[in-house]
Design goal:
Elements lengths: L8 E2 L2 E2 L16 E4 L12 E3 L8 E6 L15 E3 H14 L4 E4 L5 E4 L7 E5 L5 E2 L3 H4 L4 E5 L5 E5 H11 L11 E4 L5 E4 L11 E6 L41
Parallel strand pairs: 3-4
Antiparallel strand pairs: 1-2, 3-7, 5-6, 5-9, 7-8, 8-9, 10-13, 11-12, 11-15, 13-14, 14-15
Length: 250
């Protein structure tokens, strides 16, 4: 099914995206999205698990009107954060087993609670970046130029950036991860290692760059290289702070 037919409505107004409203009972275009555990024998047909889905940072939400029941939405406005859509889809696809969601090749997501419900369409802002959920696949440069919130610049190995992303996305026993990480269109990374997710003053950036001829020897305490040392409070292999790189003995 094409991705750009007649306009639907968005909260009763004109749909600025031009994406179609899917009538009740018709299949959703794209690849099926799932959030539940896949049995050992697999599933028939292609699908994308939420753990491997490329969810953008922001979306335009378009509320359809072509079903017998109203669409369930991920927010109250036209613009919705990707992390809200991520939790919305995980919760609904696991709880409402009759619900369905699909993603097209262009990243457009459509969801409905049942085949008789109206469809809500999420159109990604491709310049906003993608939520990083697979650091080993999405963050692949050998070296990154990392800038701290205070303007300090260091050269980090790719593995160190991936470890930082995994650390900032770590979930406590209860609640959501304290931090977040976004992969931007230019392959750079923006991440916040912890604390309040609305605190915009704690953003680190990592830009791919050339790898040095030699990284030197790692710190015997925290395992970081000299060029990676001391920027992130408490960021050490043993979980403690390590502020002074050991002085080489003559």
């Amino acid at each position: 099914m094409p991705d750009t037919p007649p306009a639907a409505t968005n909260g009763g107004g004109t749909n600025p995206t031009g994406y179609e409203d899917i009538p009740a009972g018709q299949p959703l275009p794209g690849t099926r999205i799932i959030a539940h555990h896949v049995p050992a024998w697999g599933m028939a047909g292609s699908y994308i698990h939420m753990d491997r889905a490329d969810i953008h940072v922001t979306y335009t939400q378009v509320v359809g009107r072509a079903g017998q029941f109203p669409a369930e939405t991920a927010g109250y406005s036209g613009t919705v954060r990707g992390r809200n859509i991520d939790s919305f889809l995980r919760g609904n696809l696991n709880f409402w087993l009759c619900s369905e969601a699909c993603m097209t090749d262009s990243g457009v997501i459509r969801y409905r609670r049942t085949r008789n419900h109206s469809v809500v369409t999420f159109v990604p802002d491709r310049m906003s970046g993608i939520l990083i959920n697979r650091p080993d696949q999405q963050v692949t440069a050998a070296a990154y130029r990392v800038t701290s919130p205070t303007g300090v610049i260091q050269l980090w190995r790719g593995r160190t950036v991936r470890e930082a992303i995994a650390r900032c996305r770590r979930k406590p026993p209860v609640g959501w991860p304290a931090g977040w990480a976004h992969l931007m269109p230019d392959a750079s990374v923006r991440f916040e290692p912890g604390g309040a997710p609305w605190d915009r003053e704690a953003i680190y950036t990592a830009e791919p760059t050339g790898e040095p001829r030699s990284w030197g020897l790692p710190c015997p305490k925290c395992g970081r290289m000299e060029s990676e040392h001391g920027m992130w409070s408490g960021y050490a292999a043993d979980g403690t702070g390590c502020w002074t790189y050991p002085v080489r003995q003559a």
